Amino acid sequence: MNQPSSGIEVIKKTIPTLPTSAGVYRMCNTSGDVLYVGKARNLKRRVNSYTQLKRLPLRLQRMVAQTDSLEIVTTHTEAEALLLESNLIKRFTPYFNVLLRDDKSFPYILLTNHLNRKLLLTGDSEKTSVSKHTYSPKDTNKKGANPEEWIGITKYRGTRSHRGEYFGPFASPGAVNRTLNALERAFLLRSCSDSVFSGRTRPCLKYQLKRCSAPCVGLISLEDYKNLIQQAREFLGGQSRSVQEKIAKEMHRASQNLEYEAAGQARDRIRALTQIQAHQDINVENLNLPEADIIAGHQINGQTCVQVFFFRAGRNYGNRAYFPRHDKSVPLSEVLTAFIGQFYADKTPPRLILSSQQLPENAVLCAALSVKANHKIQIVHPKRGARKKIVQHAVDNARDAMERRLAEKTTNEELLKKAADLFKIKTPIKRIEVYDNSHVSGQYAVGAMIVAGPNGFIKGAYRKFNMKDSRKNKIDGYTAGNDLGMMNEMLTRRFSRALKEKDKNNYTDWPNLILIDGGLTQLNTANNVLKSLGIKDIVVVGIAKGPERNAGREKFYLAEKAAFQLPQNDGLLYYFQRLRDEAHRFAISTHRAKRSKSIYKNPLDEVSGIGAKRKKALLLHFGSARAVTRAGLADLEGVSGISKSMAKQIYYYFNANS
């Protein structure tokens, strides 16, 4: 009882200094880690309640026992306090709060008159889109045409800072891709960058595939194209029926005028729109849900699954399941309250949210979200009718997802127990880290770490390592571009940092088992790194592919033990294969992203002292950045605006290691 009394004493000493206004309080332990973030209408009254230890649930008693200090921030209103609380919870991830994990941004469809390569890469846009004109060889690009007059369409993910019109969010990339592809076939809108648009002299392949109207070469007038844009806006805005009626009239008129090709293209556009509406998991007729999110939760054994369904323009844009972390004693209504606050901390909430529970702080939550959205937000718990049925459908999905997760967890726990027995690990395995790398002759080299545990893959803990260029660096005798050098660098960086954090309270990022993609040489490299750092409590296992890289015949390597194989029908073997394949997938995808990004990177940008004017002078003189990198010193000195010292700097930057 000494610890709780000391925690209470800390709180009692702080209470006299607290205001009676609204605000947010943070409870911290002796290491300065945030244990809990809470908000209050009256800070003094709320914090004082923690001194009545017997009235607190066990989780809060434990929190009080660890409390060493309090930090206070006052706000004007309780709604502002709730918004601040949600942001601080996402920032500090306190142990005793309900935590929303694996929270990622959602993709949108963006109509914009400024499409650049960076935007298309950020949006991960599928560049596919349909035409109703016939190409004639005499048609050429209208020189001087402004690409910004021709609005394009793309997928976009990230902060909504780019100018344009956003439609969404969509729950998954698959949902937005299906919709985007159908929209491009229906409305024939461009999805190319402005630079590509300006440089075209003939239609691209998408025109031939009837996925674009080829505005780049003048095969459609600006007036007709704007009409297509307006139809797309109306369709995405919920006026799908009127848009389809307009296109149907166009088809009928073309058919009467014996313009059968135009009639067939109008028919294809109607089919594309119908395809969008066919991907509806829920019947939304008569629900009157132009803009709404459905948030439903289900608890089993103190664990919660929250399902979020998105409805926009009267259509279902998909759903996603979340599994927030919280103490088993927290009731579902409190979990949903905390979830909603954190979920919309970096998103614009819709005008209507349907909840499966009556929330205890509904009024404050509505006020806080209304402040954030700049319009009125309602959170409703329907008790009858069609809305009750659709919320129940979301609850059923949450229950099914929770049951699948528990079943998967049971299976994983059994596999982890078998792995602990196989590798003689005395404590239960809570965390496995798997390492892999990817590069092309040492260039664009990346390392990847994936993490798995009793609940499956922990994607929020994945890490990527940008490796040093093998042409310029060596690490402890290893060339950085080869597999051994990359493994050495990865593990050194990972565990040097981890050692600094291990002494902190509640540290959980320490693995029981490390899996290395490779044989005895890779295993020895990994063990040498851990030995040099003084780490002895982690088992390292190398997994080498079988002859001709045949899956099922992998060999396992352990220090001071002969290599061995598992039976081909062993479930543990399949489990290790899944871990290795996930690490390989993550490494390859990270490498490809880095390589794609470098395509649009100018090597001159890396040279210190080269600004826009000097870069322009160099490009005008040599014709390309590649030619600059290969130029001789005398040639560089002959460029207008490039001094002899700058010429030497450029020359030696590109030639010092050649």
Structural features, described:
Helices cover 43% and strands 18% of the residues. The protein is globular and about 85 Å long. With 658 residues, the chain is of the alpha+beta class. It has five domains: 2-92, 3-Layer(aba) Sandwich (GIY-YIG endonuclease), CATH 3.40.1440.10; 107-278, no CATH class; 291-403, 2-Layer Sandwich (Nucleotidyltransferase, domain 5), CATH 3.30.420.10; 432-580, UvrC, RNAse H endonuclease domain (Nucleotidyltransferase, domain 5); 603-655, DNA polymerase, domain 1 (Orthogonal Bundle), CATH 1.10.150. A hairpin with a 2-residue loop joins strand 16 and strand 17. Strands 12, 13, 14, 15, 18, 19, 20 and 21 form an eight-stranded mixed sheet that branches. Strands 9-8-7-10-11 form a five-stranded mixed sheet. Strands 2-1-3 form a three-stranded antiparallel sheet.
Per-chain topology:
Blueprint: H1 2-14, E1 23-28, E2 34-40, H2 43-48, H3 58-66, E3 69-74, H4 78-92, E4 107-112, H5 117-123, E5 152-157, E6 165-167, H6 173-187, H7 194-199, H8 205-208, H9 222-236, H10 240-256, H11 260-278, E7 291-300, E8 303-312, E9 315-322, H12 332-343, E10 352-355, H13 362-373, E11 378-380, H14 385-422, E12 432-440, E13 443-453, E14 456-457, E15 463-466, E16 474-475, E17 478-479, H15 483-501, E18 513-517, H16 520-532, E19 539-544, E20 555-558, E21 561-564, H17 571-599, H18 612-622, H19 625-629, H20 633-637, H21 644-655
Parallel strand pairs: 7-10, 10-11, 12-18, 18-19
Antiparallel strand pairs: 1-2, 1-3, 4-5, 4-6, 7-8, 8-9, 12-13, 13-14, 13-15, 16-17, 19-20, 20-21
Helix pairs in contact: 1-3, 4-13, 6-11, 9-10, 10-11, 15-16
